[in-house]
Amino acid sequence: MAGAQPTPAEEAREAAVEAALGALGLDAKTRLLAGQDMWTLPALPEIGLASLVMSDGPIGVRGVRWTADDPSVALPSPTALAAAWDPELARRAGVLLAQEARRKGVHVLLAPTVNLHRSPLGGRHFECYSEDPYLTGVIGAGYVTGVQSGGVGTTVKHFVANDAETERFTVDNLVSARALRELYLAPFEAIVANARPWGVMTAYNSVNGTTMTEHRHLVEEVLRGEWGFDGVNVSDWTAARDTVGAVRGGLDIAMPGPRTVYGPALARAVRDGEVEEALVDAAVRRVLRLAARVGVLAGAEPVVPEPPAPVDGEALAREIARRSFVLVRNERAALPLKPHGTVALIGAAARDARVLGGGSATVFPARVVSPLDGLTAALPEGTLRYAVGADPATELAVAGRGFRLRAVCRDADGTVIGTRSAPNGLVQWMGSDLPGGVTHDTLHTVELTGTFTPRATGPHTFGIKGLGAFTLTVDGTTYYDDVQRPGKDDPFETFFGAPVPHARTELTAGEPVEVSLVHTVRLPDDLSMTVVTFALAHAEPRRDPDELIAEAAEAARNADTAVVVVATTERVESEGFDRTDLRLPGRQDDLVRAVAAANPDTVVVVNSGSPVELPWREEVAAVLLGWFPGQEGGAALADVLTGAHEPGGRLPTTWGSLADAPVTRVVPAGGELPYTEDVFIGYRAWEKAGRTPSYPFGHGLGYTDWAYESLVVDGGTARVRVRNTGERAGREVVQVYVAPAGPGPERPARRLAGFAPVEAGPGESVEVGVELPARAFEVWDETAGRWECVKGSYEITAARSIADHGLTAPINV
Ligand code: BGC
């Protein structure tokens, strides 16, 4: 932090860093700034530096392998974590993630993602916290504090304005200085000030004409200069494009390797006089500082010498999930469920839960508790019925249930050179992570081979995900022997692209067949990522959709309560592309309507990471937003449906229809995406447009009721007294909004200034103080280039959501 006095430990670390830096020649220094493979930096034994290992992030720690045989605890999606409105819970999540990182030998977690929910169409919406910069900043600061308290670094990402995916590598986002300061930079600023992150990751996109890995103004002047950030700046993967531009723009590490714009290219630029060596030294100093902090530089005491007390990951994943669920509607006292009532559980995602969003945020949990598993365990025997109702999956999934596979590696002569067990149909080997005895030089083909035992009789579909040459054989017949080519110009297409169906064959339940998928591995010379990645994919026989819906309605009719789980799919919410609509995929809307017509006590659980349209929401008794709930989601759902715990979440983002959403443009024109809405996104934009969303920012019900009794603004603090007027203990999130009431520049009608959770037993009242930060009364003055307090009158509101009028008090600033 600017102005903060270094502690003796920091001084000692800085001394070790200077000594190490002084012992390095130019080639070693530039080598250290370039990834040696997908996830690591080179070790420099001559200065006692071990290899720094980085890994995604943010809901778990994947580690250097990208496959199910290296499992990780999977926490709920970042939208869910933010929905708990609890920085302390975010801190505890961080502590668990540091424990996971240490277990996997990871020193830096590539997280948190603190871009904003500018538009509901953003493909990585689920991976970001909120539409509100203040809420994003406090949740992010809690998370970073937690991870780093475990001795593991973070890279707050993606700096900055990486709020959508379309043309993500090249888009030039045109954002006013005011919108940057008041919205997009604000979470980064708050996290730097309050949690001192050891890293940031600069984004793929440009801002106002300059790509972020070369953005001297935002990196050197704002982030480092004004805010005093002393950590490293790592590029997003493949985002560094120009040696001189990047080093002058303040980029320290170019990832991934082995081929980057740093390393030998940077040494050459220094020798040719294009780059001053002092810039290289500054970058190396920051990398060594990170190494010292995480304990991989000999002679430097790490910030956290001993790991913190162990955390139970499963229990925490379950606690965060139930604290994140947002009950947006609860009529007919539908929830909690009546004890001993019968329940019809409906939906494909109730059985095959979707627990996380797609892309680099993917981790592989050792187990997943689906809603069906969770409710089966929690409800009395014989009271639960399941029906699939509608399956939104339109594409093949990675081969899983029923498959027994292993990967066999061969050289060009066809000799087996290594094998590895394959827990599912995904092969994803990065860098040197190859089966024992195998190298990239000798590897010619990888064969996934084994058996598949169907659980249903009928036409099964098999396919391939990945690029390159493949041969697919099922039950002795070769269905495909050709080359799959990329559909679009995205280096990550091979990771995020859809599987292509190639074989359809009649199989009988319980009768195993042989399957084989051979991939001929050819790594072109100029490939910057040494990755072997492909998957065998499969889909079960599909039944008639109308028949499935009718069957579900029938099950609902015969039960006391119907619980329908609706979901998005990996094709809908993922890194790599934006959404084009907010509808639930497949026949799920029809399913909900049919079930609700059959049973008035229909509860809908929405399993999506970001907003979807709920056109039937007034026709059902209750709606519970469950996000991507992480590996223990089904257990948490049972906790909440049965009333063992109340759902604790409040909306971190406005939910409404696409037609009403004020900011929807995510598609650039001519490479540019103007943020024409300026400082009006999220609830700021809904209020400006005078539109009413389906569910407002901050909204969420528990199982008790609250009365707001008094609000007194005293100095810089809003004191709020609330009473639990219901019949059970509960937890409330008291929200405080600031509304300008006098003349001044155009400003949002209201903004969130602070919040505080309270807990109270039935009948009890509690008082909390919420500090009003100076920033709540400031705007960024573009002409002066500084924050200006807008003096005058304001109205302070303490309320349950932005749409609730709660209690108000006028103040003058
Ligand atoms: C993503 C980053 C991620 C990196 C490494 C990129 O495509 O944008 O968020 O950390 O890949 O997986």
What does this structure look like?
- Helices cover 24% and strands 25% of the residues.
- α12 (313-324) packs across α18, α14 crosses α18 (633-641) and α16 runs parallel beside α17 (588-598).
- The chain has a six-stranded mixed sheet with strand order 10-26-25-24-11-12, with helices on both faces. A six-stranded antiparallel sheet has the order 15-14-17-22-19-20, with no helix packed on it. Strands 13, 16, 18, 21 and 23 form a five-stranded antiparallel sheet that branches.
- With 813 residues, the protein is an alpha/beta fold.
- It folds into four domains: 9-294, Alpha-Beta Barrel (TIM Barrel), CATH 3.20.20.300; 336-391 and 544-646, Glycoside hydrolase family 3 C-terminal domain (Rossmann fold, 3-Layer(aba) Sandwich); 397-539, Alpha-Beta Complex (Toxin - Anthrax Protective Antigen, domain 1), CATH 3.90.182.10; 704-812, Immunoglobulin-like (Sandwich), CATH 2.60.40.10.
- The model has no long low-confidence stretch (mean pLDDT 95).
- β28 and β29 form a beta hairpin.
- It has 19 helices and 36 strands.
- The structure holds beta-D-glucopyranose.
- Beta-D-glucopyranose binds at residues 56-57, 110, 157, 236-237, 360, 492.
Quick structural summary:
By secondary structure, the protein is α/β, with parallel strands linked by helices. Helices cover 24% and strands 25% of the residues. A 6-stranded mixed sheet has the order 10-26-25-24-11-12, with helices on both faces.
By CATH reckoning, the class of the largest domain would read Alpha Beta
Tally of individual domains: 4
Strand order of the largest sheet: 10-26-25-24-11-12
Structural class based on helices, strands and sheet pairing: alpha/beta
CATH topology of the largest domain: TIM Barrel
CATH architecture of the largest domain: Alpha-Beta Barrel
User: Quick one: CATH superfamily of the largest domain?
Assistant: Glycoside hydrolase, family 3, N-terminal domain
Instruction: Let me know the average pLDDT.
Output: 95
Q: Radius of gyration, Cα only, in angstroms?
A: 27 Å
Shape designation: globular
Give the % helix.
10-25%
Number of helices: 19
The termini sit apart by 28 Å
